[in-house]
Design a protein that fits this description.
Order of helices and strands: HHH
Structural class: mainly alpha
Length: about 70
């Protein structure tokens, strides 16, 4: 894997983990809607990391969802 691509994957996975951690905290505080939003973005970012491994990148949700 290209070195820059590997760094991008690592960065996006780290971001996804941070968002998931935020979602857990929000869930524990009873902020369910905000927790769902953070969870969604954690998954979106993780999928973007996986796609980046193959040199594919979409910045919009519709591209990742297709």
């Amino acid at each position: 894997m290209h070195e820059n691509r590997e760094e991008l994957v690592k960065y996006r996975l780290k971001s996804a983990k941070e968002r998931l951690n935020s979602a857990k905290i929000l869930l524990e505080c009873g902020s369910y809607k905000d927790s769902i939003g953070r969870s969604y973005y954690a998954m979106f970012t993780a999928v973007r990391a996986l796609l980046a491994r193959d040199g594919i990148d979409y910045s919009k949700h519709v591209g990742v969802n297709s």
